[in-house]
Amino acid sequence: MVEEWIKKLTNALDKFIAGEQLPEDERIMVASLIYATLKHLKDFNECNEKLKEVEEKCTKNLDELKNKLDELQKELEKEKEVEEKLRTLDNLIKIMEANPRLLPKN
């Protein structure tokens, strides 16, 4: 039954495209298909607009996250530098404690 309806619709569309006069039942089929197509295109366009809005928000959020990540990486680099300086200072203290003659005299 569906296959038969599809064949009728296909024939009706061929006639419509060729500019032939269509009987009422074929006009209804073609008009229904055109209406449904336009309705779905409208729905598709609305969904597409919403998708664009979501994409813009996601892009904005991603940019913000990238900036935060850059800031965190800079902070981490500073912390590593401080950690390295503290290790150096700790090593100097150990050396001075191992060699008391290096300590300043009071």
Task: Write up this protein.
About 85% of the residues lie in helices and about 0% in strands. The chain has two helices and no strands. Helix 1 (about 1-20) packs across helix 2 (about 25-100). It is rod-shaped and about 115 Å long. The mean pLDDT is about 90.
Parts with pLDDT < 50 across at least 5 consecutive residues: none
Average pLDDT across residues?
A: 90
> What coarse outline follows from CA principal-axis ratios?
rod-shaped
What is the tally of helical segments?
A: 2
Largest sheet: none
Rounded to the nearest angstrom, the radius of gyration is 38 Å
- State the distance separating the first and last CA atoms: 108 Å
Beta-strand percent range: under 5%
Structural class: mainly alpha
User: What is the percent of helical residues?
Assistant: over 70%
Number of strands: 0
Keywords:
106 residues, 2 helices, mainly alpha
Secondary-structure map with pairings?
Blueprint (H helix, E strand, L loop, with lengths): L1 H17 L5 H75 L8
